[in-house]
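User: Please predict the structure of the protein below. I'd like the answer in structure-token form so I can feed it into my own downstream comparison script.

Assistant: Understood. Taking the following sequence of 105 residues as input:
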Amino acid sequence: MRSLNKSSGFSLIEVLVAAAIFSIWLPSSLYALQLGLATQLKVQQRAEQVEAMMALHADIAAQWRDGAVTVDSHDIDWQIDVIDEHRAVLTLSADDYNLKFMLTR
């Protein structure tokens, strides 16, 4: 028969300490994961917004070089401030973003 050895396995104190550490670690890890996912969603939405603004910039710049701008943008406000016949400043605004571009002919 085998004799029971005191050093085999974990003691109750060791198991309780491990459970306490795990119970402290788990909520903070879940909070960090939730925060990371929320941040990722905001970054993705802003990237899509900037991509739409850059596409609108390309359309307006091409039309401005041709002489007339007729662009319909639903979510993005835009304004062209003409400096002279060869230069203008294009301002695009959407939510928290304001982008300015120099247009040249």
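That's the full token string. The chain has one domain: 12-104.
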